[in-house]
Amino acid sequence: MTAQPKRTLAHPLSGADPSTLIRALTANGGVDRASLLRLAGIAGSVVGRLPFSALERVYAGLAAPKRLDPPPVFIVGHWRSGTTHLYNIMAKGDFAYVPPIATGLPWDLLLIGGLFRPLLEKALPKGRAIDNVAVTPDSPQEDEIALASMTTLSFYHALYFPRRFEDHLKAGLFFEGVEDERVAAWERRVRHLYAKLVLAQKGRRLLIKNPVYTGRVAQLSRMFPGTKFINMVRDPYDIFVSMRNFYARLLPELALQDHAHVDIDRAVLTVFPELMRRLRADRAGLDAGSYVELRYEELDADPLETLRRAYAALDLQGFETSIDDFRRYLDGIRSYRKNEFRMPPEVIELVNSHWAEEIEALGYEVRTPA
Description:
- Helix 15 runs antiparallel to helix 16 (319-332).
- This protein has a four-stranded parallel β-sheet.
- The longest helix has 21 residues, at 180-200.
- The protein starts with 17 loop residues before the first helix and ends in a 9-residue tail after the last helix.
- By secondary structure, the protein is mostly helical.
- Mean pLDDT is 92; it is low at 1-5.
- 54% of the residues lie in helices and 5% in strands.
- The radius of gyration is 20 Å and the shape is globular.
């Protein structure tokens, strides 16, 4: 059994509804004995919020918009490709986004979310576990964590219930083996969450960042006609070593079951090319002016000019009126130091043996092991 580390956060499933929690536990055979106390905390939160969650569903049904106009802007790209950096900058503009309260309490963000916000703010870590990027009460978050508390069809359930790690990975990322009814239910949850986010943030255009959506561009275009996409691209070698750290940090923090058997390298090596393949197929059917690709290296070197180019390519309004806010944010993170990872020859050889075609397709050079 994997030794249980000291967890720093309440488990994200504490924000789930009873149906999602029960289905997750039933489908995955419960949790390990070492996680029973944590499960008790999750269950207590779920049951305690029942009347408030029911009231919010009624309120959201009456007050939330039935259609998102203008449609959302999605930031996609494989994990660790710079999507968070771009998201943090753009969120300083005139966008609605996913605040921490929505990831923690997706069913309750409109009503009791405001009441619990001071407590949640105190519980926030100073930085993300995977890279120490600062987390504040207004830091934009991925919607995937919120959706993992609203449906069992989420990538994060691979991290919560790693006994069925590969099954959850395939279902949560690519809908493999998933019935149409479950996909339709997932879409309803997405629309419900997005409508509440827009309502809570005074009708502003919604900005969403989620690497999972790199393989769902066509689906999201169908769900939200006229939506825009920004795809972040980064050197695949850097992505690989950073993803090793991603899983190594998150599994001990989030897993409710033993995860010693999880083959992290296999997961990273198989998911990346499949996401890229699906993205290439989907973007071919997009209308002109709805998709732009940015490179992490360009965003890192000259963020404002790179952002200006993205706004122009997608015909987004508000760059000039928000540029001072962008500058203030960028000035405030000048002292941030990115994680640095070793790139030994065996890692280069491993990546080359699986991703050589993708590396060239993305315009990067295939490295020779030193």
